[in-house]
Amino acid sequence: xxxxxxxxxxxxxxxxxxxxxxxxxxxxxxxxxxxxxxxxxxxxxxxxxxxxxxxxxxxxxxxxxxxxxxxxxxxxxxxxxxxxxxxxxxxxxxxxxxxxxxxxx
Length: 105
Description:
Blueprint: H1 11-20, E1 26-32, H2 39-48, H3 54-67, E2 69-76, H4 77-93, E3 99-104
Antiparallel strand pairs: 1-2, 1-3
Helix pairs in contact: 2-3
């Protein structure tokens, strides 16, 4: 049976470790507009990779089309980077120049 850390006199160490833990930095995944990627493909990407409902995906696609860019979601760096890579791979497989970028939230 494990002993209580206080029995070892290390309670200060455990308290310091818990105080140093912090939430990871968050990053915005931003979709950039281009003149070649079809709108249907953008909606498809938003539904399949970002798990958006079709109506929400359509709203985001129209924002990207009208404003030149649109935020898709906010994620920890590793998840955001993975989403960017998935979008890039799917777009290249279909020969579209669709781009996404990460921006500090």
